[in-house]
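Note to self: user wants both folds in one dump. Writing first protein now.
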Amino acid sequence: MGFFLETLLGGLMTGMLYSLVALGFVLIFKASGVFNFAQGAMVLFAALAMARFSEWLPKWFGFESLVLANVLAFIVAGVIMFAVAWLIEWLVLRHLVNQEGATLLMATLGITYFLEGLGQTLFGNSIYKIDVGMPKDPVIAFENVFQGGILINQEDLIAAAISAALVTLLSLFFQKTSTGRALRAVADDHQAAQSIGIPLARIWVVVWCVAGVVALVAGMIWGSKLGVQFSLATVALRALPVVILGGLTSVPGAIIGGLIIGVGEKLSEVYIGPLVGGGIEIWFAYVLALAFLLVRPQGLFGEKIIDRV
């Protein structure tokens, strides 16, 4: 029982990180109808900015505090992501309003490769580290309850707590603020929202900025775990099954979908992997997403689309 709970807890913590990345997809799709394939590149670009500025700022200003370096680097990287989000909306998206979905998808693919190339030009192409002081050593808990206790990775636990806190703040932002209500109105009907005076361009800038902050937090966490390297952009691919499972238009769906995928990966790798030769953790999420596409294409919490002719 202890081992099962240990695996389950590890899956929940990993799933929370998947949810954080998936949230970037959902936020932009809800507000603009754009499937942002560049979300992975935004995570990479944000992680590169934070990693490099946390290294550069102490040299430029002559201080040695790791905490101060990380705080300042986070702020600078946040400003950069706000600028990137504004430029994407100003230079690309506002010129593609009411275009076909395939056109918008190709535009985000172009943004992906541009951000990856720009990141390499500005910050280099080596492997960098982000050290935000999270403990790396695992601890054993509940020794009095289960024989041998439960092994808990402290870094994963803190990362999951940060992800949960950000998701909670974003949920409150959407539900309790006037800007959040405007975002939901735009998500429901662009033309109706515009007819009552909601400026679509401003709303899209806001939602892309929020997605940039989400990408920064995700990049910081994943960069701390895996190191900042260009393969970090593929983290977004791990979040694709999450948005398919939860629904492209649902914030709660991104959370629940991430938890289901995270737990499913861990349990299948431990209990089914030995029977099929291992490696199931790599493809489990995609097979589950394919099954949902066949049975419920809109996902668990997505809105069912009915076309009347």
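First done. Writing the second protein, which came from a different request thread.
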Amino acid sequence: MNTITIGGRRIGRGEPVYIIAEMSANHAGSLAHAKEIIHAAKEAGADCIKIQTYTADTMTIDCRNRYFEITDGTWKGENLYGLYQKAYTPWEWQPQLKEEAEKAGIDFFSTPFDQSSVDFLEELDVGFYKIASFELVDLPLIRYVAQKGKPIILSTGMGTLSEIEEAVEAARGEGNEQLALLRCASAYPAISDNMNLAAMKAMQEKFDLPVGLSDHSLGSVGAVAAVAMGGSIIEKHFCLDRSLKNPDSSFSMEPAEFAAMVRDVRDAQKAVGTVSFGATESEKSNLAFRRSIFVVEDIQAGEPLTPQNIRVIRPSDGLAPKYYDTVLGRRAALDLKRGTPLKMEMIEQ
């Protein structure tokens, strides 16, 4: 299984799950809130804070005809240009946010949405990139990002298998093999019925890349299940308080919820563990309570061993139960008291 390396840390199967807190629009237009989110994400256990780098003009055009109106879902009634004006993270903030993340001791990266945002992030010297699900089909953008030679996390929401293949090949065609794929249900919020985490597992097997979940659902069930199925990366939208309304608040986690998810994810990875058989260190003392063959009635030397005078019971000090049929009918080599664990040397050979 391939891995990617971010800031000297390996990410992939067998490595600690990498947990991303997505800020997106949750700063609600306040630089102070944005900085507070960074520190809150660190305290909640996130490994990384992610932002998005675009403007309304780099995403779409200011047009009010029906093609640019959102007719259903969380943002029903919004115009695309107006929505992105509300949601974007001002570019002049982003050097300060990166610096704030460095102070907090948390990784920082961004999702670019066009070449100008990639160029801006290169000047900012970000260490890696995210491609959003909606941009999975923007192969020119993927190629441009791949040319920078940095790790790329690709979200695959709505993507057909052929579209995912094309995106992976676009990056690999530029010589960039540092890729990870995230399963994503591109609904806001998503529901468990639409997660299809089996597809995440299938991507892992087909592309031999680290996989994970970009999770827009409420709660942590999807994240925990993804980790149990081999996911190496979890991304969740993060806010200080859902009552601070913005385009992403309704499907974002507050700090206490995020911290609980982090604990659940870490515990889930521990529970998955590695392929191992036999008693663990914590189980070894309980081997004493396995069953074995004991004398349950006094037996005189020369008497046969019968179902009445020997039984398979707890604890484990006697012969293993697998010898029970072998010793039945054989004779005691010496007098045996009730409660004695039966040993082979106590039986006539």
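Dump finished. Worth passing along: The CA atoms of residues 134 and 168 lie 15 Å apart.
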